[in-house]
Hints:
The structure is a single chain. By secondary structure, the chain is an alpha/beta fold. It has 2 domains: 7-132, Rossmann fold, CATH 3.40.50; 135-229, Orthogonal Bundle (Arc Repressor Mutant, subunit A), CATH 1.10.10. The protein is built from 8 helices and 12 strands. It has helices spanning 15-27, 38-47, 66-76, 90-99, 112-132, 165-175, 184-190, 200-214; strands spanning 7-11, 31-35, 52-56, 81-86, 104-107, 135-138, 145-148, 153-156, 159-161, 182-183, 219-222, 226-229. Strand 8 and strand 9 form a beta hairpin. Helix 2 (38-47) runs parallel beside helix 3 and helix 6 (165-175) packs across helix 8 (200-214). The relative contact order is 0.09.
Amino acid sequence: MTVPLASVLLVDDDPAVLLTLGRVLEKAGHSVTPAADAAHALHLADENDFHVAVVGYRLHGSSMDRLELITRLHDANPFTIPLLMTDHDKGQVGFRAAQVGASGYLTKPFSDKALLDAVRAALDERLRRERMRDRLHVGGHSTGLVIDLAARTVTVAGELVSLSCLEFDLLAHLARHPRRAVSYDELWRKVWDYDGPLDKGVIRRAMSRLREKLGGEWIVCIRRQGYRLQ
């Protein structure tokens, strides 16, 4: 059995558009699920993990326009990549679409090739996001801190840093809450997984070792509050 290239949610209120574009996508090997309105599209998105959502610009008879739909789809699953179909000025609409999470747009009329190329680009973006899902980045790509949650590795400016299991968990928790002071109590419960009496000394000693290994000023001590990752 052939595995579909991408699972595509196709949204448009014109049945002819759903039929025609659905056939083009399916002929290219994609799996297509049609939706004629926003409510149905959101229901389908709740039930399925679509790779790409191809969405028309207007939605007649609905209180929700397509940009709002794209926003809702993106909020529901940031790994579903929206594409916007439009007959409007592509500069203005493209900017607005990008602001709400669309990765690209197609200006009508467009060719079958343009549609397939856009879906392929969106699928590539989906795969890129999936690869990055288990990585937390702090700072610039060349000089920053990269925490690979799957491999449990940490690099600073491209150089591997050797951390203990506790130190890694401590850093990962801070990285999940960037620019926020994480309290001693939260670290004690979430990283040490201990409900007993708080021991700030244990946390301070572990944090001191971690800061020394990372170098620089990645972790800042917030007086009487806790720690924050810059």
